[in-house]
Design brief:
With 107 residues, the chain is α+β, with helices and mostly antiparallel strands. The protein has a single domain, classed as Dimeric alpha+beta barrel (Alpha-Beta Plaits, 2-Layer Sandwich), CATH 3.30.70.1060. The chain is built from three helices and six strands, in the order E-H-E-E-E-E-H-H-E. It is flat and about 45 Å long. The two termini are 19 Å apart. The model has no long low-confidence stretch (mean pLDDT 92).
């Protein structure tokens, strides 16, 4: 079954601790509702560097990610349906970028 990685981008994070706790609980409830399709429930990321043939840049990326998760779904369409209710979109106004993970065989 295909796997899909989705990255979290943007949004406004809560200013009050109780709002942050509610947001986290809503996210945990949503993640739990996905059941076994959620392969990696979430991995936050820190500082991003951009590496090119010319070197390393400390300039912030245009659309930085704040984390990623991985799900297993029959199709991109089904994956998108599962992700439409993600609290990252509805609670903080962020976006998700969804990509099918390609199988590279046994290397």
């Amino acid at each position: 079954m295909p796997k899909f990685i989705f990255t979290y981008h943007g949004g406004e994070h809560p200013n009050k601790p109780e709002d942050g706790q509610k947001m986290m609980q809503d996210w945990k409830d949503w993640a739990e509702s996905l059941g076994s399709v959620l392969i990696n429930p979430g991995t936050p990321v820190g500082t991003t560097k951009i590496l090119t043939k010319d070197g390393v840049s400390d300039e912030p990326p245009i659309n930085p990610i704040s984390g990623f998760s991985i799900i297993e779904a029959d199709s991109m369409e089904f994956a998108l349906e599962l992700l439409k209710k993600c609290p990252h979109i509805h609670l903080i106004g962020g976006t998700l970028e969804v990509s099918e993970m390609m199988h590279m065989g046994d290397c």
